[in-house]
Amino acid sequence: xxxxxxxxxxxxxxxxxxxxxxxxxxxxxxxxxxxxxxxxxxxxxxxxxxxxxxxxxxxxxxxxxxxxxxxxxxxxxxxxxxxxxxxxxxxxxxxxxxxxxxxxxxxxxxxxxxxxxxxxxxxxxxxxxxxxxxxxxxxxxxxxxxxxxxxxxxxxxxxxxxxxxxxxxxxxxxxxxxxxxxxxxxxxxxxxxxxxxxxxxxxxxxxxxxxxxxxxxxxxxxxxxxxxxxxxxxxxxxxxxxxxxxxxxxxxxxxxxxxxxxxxxxxxxxxxxxxxxxxxxxxxxxxxxxxxxxxxxxxxxxxxxxxxxxxxxxxxxxxxxxxxxxxxxxxxxxxxxxxxxxxxxxxxxxxxxxxxxxxxxxxxxxxxxxxxxxxxxxxxxxxxxxxxxxxxxxxxxxxxxxxxxxxxxxxxxxxxxxxxxxxxxxxxxxxxxxxxxxxxxxxxxxxxxxxxxxxxxxxxxxxxxxxxxxxxxxxxxxxxxxxxxxxxxxxxxxxxx
Length: 497
Fold this sequence. Notes:
By secondary structure, the protein is an alpha/beta fold. The chain folds into 2 domains: about 15-350, no CATH class; about 400-490, STAS domain (Transcription Regulator spoIIAA). The chain is built from 19 helices and 6 strands. A 4-stranded mixed beta sheet has the order 3-4-5-6. Helix 1 packs antiparallel against helix 10 and helix 2 packs antiparallel against helix 11. The longest helix is centred in the middle third of the chain and has 33 residues, at about 220-255.
């Protein structure tokens, strides 16, 4: 028998190896790198460290996460959230302690990934996600305002032209990213025309050497650990929260799924590497990610890697050229990022009229706290807490108790429907007519579910009240899960009363 010849197995080529795709990824990465420079410098100032510390962090975070991350095309670098967290440590104890906190924070992120913290993302309500996105859009916009205060009229002219290019060029062509065109054109104009406006070079000194691998010089004692541990925990939590929420946002935009567990430990590894290379740590950046994904059209890890490489090349080899870029050009890019990031549908009058007030309340509380504190963790934490309280309040009112007396008046059946937990079971005790019911009472829970010890304690209290009047109570119809919980806790939940 003649067997058909087998085709030799060829390794699948990565998607970015296509010249067309690689061109898109490279251009997107270049625009991101240009936008990262003033951001990294600004975040360094917030953290109270040399601008080179933020730039080195952006390089090492981007390059490392390109290999270790679980969300392709997402940009990780030095961020304002991390800068706010580490600023007190840098101010009180110096750079070396900050670097130790970054390394320890990265190790904690790896540990959290191993224990499955990424799975907790499913408990974040959509209204909190919308609030997160809107708050970050507002913060991105507000962060640009200082560059527009006490400046010459030329800055506003350049800003206007930049916005026109960013809005108008994509209507005609997307061959070259509009942000790149705006940056190059405005830089060329200011240089040729000799227009004096604030530039990237005015934001701080750019590095003239590569980052070096080194171990932080601190005493490795319990005292050092006690100093850096609180900051390391904050770095780990805030960094993971912002990174996972940004990853979920990119998933929605690209209609693809990413590995959140891998992203969690990937962020940890990136922070460990960053700490040892003298960077201030970081996490995913929603602004730069939106530039990369929405405006640049990037979809692979190549753009993330190239953004980090371009950043280092630009600030080290071409620092004198990069220093000439007018801040107005980058402000225009970031304003358009803020406009594109904001979920305008969520604030339309038609949407607000149809949306339940509880959902709007959660969204607004998330936005308000995040903007007021400039801390994503606080905003999301408050949003989740408000969502939980409003959900419990809403569900608690869905419990119904209906009593039916049999024709012979020898027994009465109470049918309970709904979710029974601490918020709804508190009023359960008052739904029965203890004084006038017959000696035989049946509580039918076939349409209900027992969720906690508070409900079991309420059922015990009901049984006790009837027993005091000589009546017998039978509880029937519980599903398997409710029966298991009731059997285990009956008589115990109320034993202390």
